[in-house]
Task: inverse folding
């Protein structure tokens, strides 16, 4: 309807049929574009709701009573914000102890990986030595070997070394990783050799070059590595339940998994515990989200 | 000049020569890495191949291990419970990777079509990827509750009868897959979006001039040029999915009726509940052999470019 009225107004201004036709096509294109955008944003918003709702529901549930969580029909908001759930969860989970264990283990693994992976990247990417490429291929071939294959021999090794129920049992088997070395090597190919040669001519040793030139220039890849090693180590459950049988040594994922067994009917405590477990990750994510998403796109690292 | 340097190489002892110093430096730098890998990677690989042939409870001294020859290998081949976990693992991997790739690619195409708020949308989709699986499994376990769980209550608004998410053996594995896809979707999307952005706009312009439809542009331009990305995503996620443990351990413990029993969970149980370390290792080697075959096939299927072309 409106199209025909505007059409007549156009025709009084521009009498040629050709111009009218063009205007109509342009209008159709614009309408189609708007329609397309509506569709795209509809899909995006629907997806956003799907992605965000579980987390929001968890947060709200962590303040509810058990009865409110299992109310029929659904009760979305808590009638009263029960902060006490958190107090109780912290006690039941021995939260601060467990959180501290997780923080120590994860930090050690992360810091170690930053240094070992850049060390490996430098050794295989920048140093020139006979046999380098063969040795690197040998390391790279272990990327095809999934962790579970060596799970049991590694457990036996750690047990025989007397590292059960200790931080070292959680840290030492994870000091470096093939993928991290591969990633830093690829990154370091971008560091100009001239810089390194110049430093060598000036009398720097290989170690000096690593410390004073390669390391400072590798900050972007170190950030990417740090984020993903942290995220992965923070979430490890399988190795933890194998190595740590002593409650006081437990990490956060073990304590969370245990909530399901120990507090199987206390949903509010389960949700409070889950919320507590994700807080550090959320903080990390909000602080570094630009680096994270760019890092994933560049490296394809999986959290 | 050349004569002088040649003379010099003859007079300087070998440990002063440049080539020797370079080689020594390289090997010295590589030594700690090689020692570490020998202890924690190559050693355990050989050890698992050896442990296949022994019966051992995991706690006594290694000398108590009893040599059983091919006993474990033949037992695995006829172990219904293990073979069941094997099937479940593959169904799970196919469902998770298949829906992750398809939905993730569709989302990436959608997000590639808009210009505003892209950063915000990407980050929000990516957030669940970063969140700990243990906490999310606990959350979804509660959402999957039959009577008052969040999902069934939402479904009841549109008059869908309650789904027995984790209780029905026919559904449980798919329910867990749904949760895992939800958590991983952002990763697929971000990787595909980066792949899409790398396709030069001119190709699409040219296709448009030639009158290609959107559908044709997708099949003739987008998909072929996305091949290295697709290969990378599939190889990485298949290997990852075949190792699923945490969500199973937290949400179902392999039940109901072994419907969600997966290989890594079962390897863990065989070793630490039934104290059969040799047999558990045999199961792990079995899965690894199959993964190796699949990976080789995948790499063949996508031969051009190969994995390294992604980087």
Result:
């Amino acid at each position: 309807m409106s199209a025909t009225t505007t059409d007549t107004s156009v025709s009084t201004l521009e009498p040629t049929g050709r111009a009218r036709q063009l205007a109509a096509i342009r209008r159709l294109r614009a309408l189609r574009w708007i329609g397309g955008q509506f569709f795209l944003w509809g899909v995006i918003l629907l997806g956003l709701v799907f992605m965000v709702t579980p987390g929001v529901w968890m947060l709200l549930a962590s303040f509810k009573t058990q009865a409110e969580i299992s109310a029929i029909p659904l009760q979305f908001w808590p009638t009263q914000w029960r902060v006490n759930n958190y107090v109780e969860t912290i006690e039941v989970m021995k939260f601060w102890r467990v959180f501290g264990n997780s923080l120590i283990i994860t930090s050690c693994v992360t810091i170690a990986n930053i240094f070992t992976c850049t060390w490996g990247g430098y050794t295989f990417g920048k140093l020139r030595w006979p046999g380098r490429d063969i040795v690197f291929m040998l390391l790279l071939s272990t990327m095809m070997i999934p962790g579970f294959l060596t799970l049991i021999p590694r457990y036996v090794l750690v047990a025989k070394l007397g590292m059960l129920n200790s931080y070292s049992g959680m840290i030492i088997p994870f000091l470096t990783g093939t993928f991290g070395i591969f990633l830093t090597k690829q990154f370091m190919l971008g560091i100009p050799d001239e810089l390194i040669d110049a430093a060598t001519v000036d009398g720097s040793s290989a170690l000096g070059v690593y410390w004073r030139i390669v390391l400072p220039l590798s900050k972007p890849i170190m950030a990417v590595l740090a984020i993903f090693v942290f995220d992965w180590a923070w979430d490890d459950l399988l190795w933890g339940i194998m190595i740590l049988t002593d409650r006081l040594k437990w990490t956060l994922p073990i304590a969370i998994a245990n909530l399901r067994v120990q507090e199987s009917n206390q949903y509010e405590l389960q949700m409070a515990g889950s919320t507590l477990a994700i807080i550090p990750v959320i903080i990390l994510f909000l602080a570094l989200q630009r680096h994270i998403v760019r890092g994933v796109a560049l490296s394809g690292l999986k959290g | 000049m050349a004569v002088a340097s040649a003379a010099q190489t003859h007079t300087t002892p070998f440990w002063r020569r440049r080539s020797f110093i370079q080689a020594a430096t390289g090997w010295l730098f590589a030594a700690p890495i090689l020692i570490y890998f020998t202890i924690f990677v190559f050693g355990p690989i050989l050890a698992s191949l050896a442990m296949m042939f022994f019966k051992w409870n995991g706690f006594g001294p290694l000398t108590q291990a009893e040599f059983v020859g091919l006993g474990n290998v033949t037992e695995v081949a006829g172990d219904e419970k293990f073979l069941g976990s094997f099937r479940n693992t593959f169904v799970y991997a196919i469902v998770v990777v298949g829906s992750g790739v398809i939905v993730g690619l569709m989302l990436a195409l959608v997000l590639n079509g808009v210009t505003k708020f892209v950063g915000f949308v990407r980050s929000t989709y990516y957030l669940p990827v970063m969140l700990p699986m243990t906490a999310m499994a606990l959350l979804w376990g509660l959402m999957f509750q039959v009577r008052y769980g969040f999902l069934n209550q939402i479904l009841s608004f549109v008059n869908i009868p309650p789904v027995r998410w984790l209780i029905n053996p026919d559904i449980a594995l798919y329910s867990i897959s749904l949760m895992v896809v939800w958590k991983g979707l952002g990763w697929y999307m971000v990787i595909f979006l980066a792949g899409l952005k790398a396709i030069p706009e001119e190709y699409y312009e040219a296709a448009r001039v030639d009158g290609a439809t959107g559908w044709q542009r997708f099949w003739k331009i987008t998909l072929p040029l996305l091949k290295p990305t697709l290969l990378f995503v599939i190889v990485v996620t298949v290997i990852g999915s075949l190792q699923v443990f945490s969500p199973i351990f937290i949400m179902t413990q392999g039940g109901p009726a072994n419907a969600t029993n997966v290989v890594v969970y079962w390897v863990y149980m065989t070793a630490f509940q039934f104290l059969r370390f040799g047999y558990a290792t045999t199961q792990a080697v079995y899965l690894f052999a199959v993964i190796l075959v699949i990976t080789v096939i995948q790499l063949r299927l996508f031969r051009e470019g190969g994995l390294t072309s992604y980087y």
Summary: Chain A has 15 helices and no strands. Chain A has two domains: 2-61, 84-299.
